[in-house]
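Title: Prediction job returns without error message
Component: structure pipeline
Severity: low
Priority: P3
Assignee: unassigned

Description:
Job completed but the reporter wants confirmation the result is attached to the right record. Sequence as submitted:
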Amino acid sequence: MEEGQKQEMKPLRTQTANEEEVSEGIGCCGWILVFFSFLFTLLTLPLSIWMCIKIVKEYERVVIFRLGRMVPGGAKGPGLYCILPCTTSFIRVDIRTISFDIPPQEVLTKDSVTVSVDGVVYYHVQNATLAVANITNADAATRLLAQTTLRNVLGTKNLAEILSDREEIAHNMQSTLDDATDAWGIKVERVEIKDVKLPLQLQRAMAAEAEATREARAKVIAAEGEMNASRALKEASMVIAESPSALQLRYLQTLNTIAAEKNSTIIFPLPIDLLQAFTGSRK
């Protein structure tokens, strides 16, 4: 069995090696064209040097093609590169972080509520060779994929989950986009949900529900305050009943409060001792 597996693996290896040789070689005619292009560059050297020398910036990478075939070694840059006119071409790729807005998407949630949601996506080109060779327009494809991913992710959520779990939704979108764009050489760094717009009738219903909840909570708080106040008054009355002089001090404090308010009429309470004398005589 092992010898059979080795025999089956040998042709596969030779086949892949031949494919690499074919992909890297440009053939005899290709080398002839390259030679004539080099000769033409030498003949027109003072002028052709401006066509041959290319400067690649720090945030750029270039993918070079010679007679339609990609030059081995992948993307180049940054630095100074010399290319041959007519036979060599190159494509610049910006590897800086790019951000774009997801247009508002009308989404039907899991509980049959229509909402409008928009967001923002941050990504950068991780592999310039894949971004050029595997897809026509990586930026446009990423934008379209972000819109469909937003609708698909929000379609599995309830309205309450969309309003409360924005971070989880953004994380799910980021992982989904990152997996889908991996073959394009793109790395999705961050996804954010910007705004969730609800229908006007639903906004009014939610506002009425929130107002009713706040009113009920306020009534409960007021009832608890009255209950605590009544308990405090009961304890105060018990203290005053134990000490008659405390009632007289309370009278004097009330008199001081009335006088501080600059009222035209001031009421002087009768002393408690005088009242007790009258009650004693009656008895």
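Comment from assignee: result matches the submitted record. Residues 98-198 form a domain with the Tetrahydropterin Synthase; Chain A fold (CATH 3.30.479.30).
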